[in-house]
Amino acid sequence: MTNGLPDISLPCLGNGPDTRLADLRGPLVINVWAQWCPPCRQESPYLADLQKKAGAKVKLIGIDYDDPRADEAVKFAVEQKLDYPHLVDQDKQARVPFKIGGPPLTAFVDKDGALVHIHYGAFSSQQELDQLVKDKLGVTW
């Protein structure tokens, strides 16, 4: 799996510019989530912890997917300390390119913008997420 990110633009959750996914470069972790999704809520502390630990070495972006309540999504992201940019995919533009059955899903993107791995479902532990970042993106901290 070494294709680039799809050429779709998504609006920012909250205030901010639209982002064209094809322009993004890594090392990057893209987490597809929704505030109504229990497994997304369960894994959110792992993503917040990764962002704290990996800092400038790994970028994180969230995509609030198929979520009718943007206000609740913003509230959830703030409560969970998900202090990285979040985009909105209300129209499920990412469904086909990422093969999304439903959230959560986490994509790993290398420094050249290639999509190197997709993890379907929630992470079961911090160790699982950290290990994937090390194995797929070659990033350690």
UniProtKB/TrEMBL annotation:
Gene3D superfamilies: Glutaredoxin (3.40.30.10). Keywords: Cytochrome c-type biogenesis, Disulfide bond, Redox-active center, Signal-anchor, Transmembrane. GO terms for cellular component: cell envelope. It is found in: Cell envelope. Residues 1-138 form the Thioredoxin domain. GO terms for molecular function: antioxidant activity; oxidoreductase activity. One of its GO terms (biological process) is cytochrome complex assembly. The keyword Magnesium does not apply. InterPro entries: AhpC/TSA (IPR000866), Thioredoxin-like_sf (IPR036249), Thioredoxin_CS (IPR017937), Thioredoxin_domain (IPR013766), Thioredoxin_ResA/DsbE_sf (IPR050553). It comes from the Bacteria. PANTHER family: THIOL:DISULFIDE INTERCHANGE PROTEIN DSBE. This is TlpA family protein disulfide reductase. It comes from Kribbella qitaiheensis. The lineage of its organism: Bacteria, Bacillati, Actinomycetota, Actinomycetes, Propionibacteriales.
